[in-house]
Write the structure tokens for this entry.
Amino acid sequence: MEQTQGEGQQTSQAPIDAVGSSRVVVESNVAVPMRDGVVLRADVYTPEGPGPWPVLLSRTPYGRATADHLNFLEPVHAAQKGFIVVNQDTRGRGQSEGEWMPFRHEYEDGYDSVEWAGRLPRSNGRVGMFGASYFGNAQWMAAAAQPPSLGAIAPMVTWCDPMNGLYGRGGAVEWGLEVPWTMQMGFEFLLKHPTIAPEAKMPLVGELLADLDGLKSGAYWDLPIRRSPTLAKYELPGLGAIRAIDHPETIAWCRVSGQHDRIEVPSFHGGGWYDVFLQGTLDNYVAMKMAGKDARAVIGPWTHFVLRDPVGDLCFGAMSSRLGAPVHPHGDTNDFLLAWFRRHLAHDTHIALPETSVRIFVMGRNVWRDEPAWPLERARTERHFLNSDGTLTKDRPAENSPASTFVYDPADPVPTHGGPIVMSPGYPAGPIAQAPIEARDDVLVFTSVPLEEDVEVTGRIRVVLHASSSAPSTDWVARLGDVHPDGRSINLCDGILRVATGADAKGRYEIDLWSTSNVFLAGHCIRVQVTSSCFPRWDRNLNTGDQDSPAMQIAQQSIFHDPEFPSFIELPVVPGSPGNP
């Protein structure tokens, strides 16, 4: 290995032999200067040969050397395909200089990093960006800054509006994501902190680790959440949900919505039906298409981290996996992504891309399907009504149908059990059998009769409740599920709405369950759950109207079913499938 010096830091170069392919030269710890003098650090993977090569850039706060860091493209493999690959630590993380503040510097640093990458030796001057989650948002911020060398972006499993999936949802706080993410990012923050005595750092890190391990019975239950005693003792720069409450201007640091018109480059969007940022991925794709931009989307049956079979309690088949399954003429999904990048960054017109811009995995039938657009234009909206006897029907409720009632106690909330989540260990994501949830007295269940034919539901789901609460403020949670003939009830999608009710006043409440694609097979049933909590995924509504006080009260909840005030779910049913005329 050849060692070279770079601006006071040690860098290294080493050729890597690839089986059946070309060699790749890796330069480690390369200096990337920013406009304010801060130096970020990156690893650069360059194919042997004269080039010139297009560049793929990934910017991470999780450590560029970490194997499982949401890159979505393995750098050596991508370099063997004819790309220079740059994996960079964001400001204040890994070996990069500067102060760590989530999202704060990604606009300017993204611009500067793209332009630096475009000037690399043997670069063709065209840069693409790739990566997921935080990496994905870093791409959006860089693209909004409009660096001239940027030619394409591939943001995977990332949000559009941070208040719809990242920081909050329907007025509730994404507490299940905020707390562990803040803690996990806090280890490096504490070790680098300039004013903490060296001998105090490891004990503090050990205490933080114990708090992270004890989340399920510890910090998740802290009240009030904006002054969480557990988080306050470390003074960590959090993900942003709590910061946004007191400083809403910081939301702009990572908001993509409203910026799509500024982005001139093609975009490749990847998401999962059980990903915490699913709707943001779809909304970003739709916004780019509406702005007249070149955009593609691939949505699998995945969670934020699980991209291969099985997912949760279900097996979708080998072809559902992101890697290894030849789901495209170019190979697996990553091979297809590299072909897409080559088309846009190397202007290789010999690469044929699918004419359709959307590929979705249809659960139930467990098949991939190409679509010309999202949402599906041929889908039609069907209303299925919630009835007081627990049935779900297409017929409107009868006159004088009694209300369905339950008691919501914030001290005993409905636990999070599957779904599109990113939480601490002990809370599995994805499709999870719902029996423990549906057995609770504070969860209402409405179920159709077994279906005589297959019914495909693909698109955005909405539940409308006519409801009342004895509390001045409360939450309404709704969930769509697929009941199998063996009795397993599997969650598909859900949503929450925080409301100021006016004690016992009847109101109309619309809950956005986001999107799904599922065929309810013949013999299966369609099911809707209604409750008032999903904790600790979302923070508990304390039913007092004052979330800054730890005081709480029990609420009497009522869901109405009469013809004048019906409660229902709207399903986008796709005709042309068996059972869908």
Summary: Residues 1-12, 14-21 have pLDDT under 50 and may be disordered. DSSP finds ten helices and 25 strands in the chain. Residues 417 and 508 are 27 Å apart (CA to CA). The first strand starts at residue 2 and ends at 6.
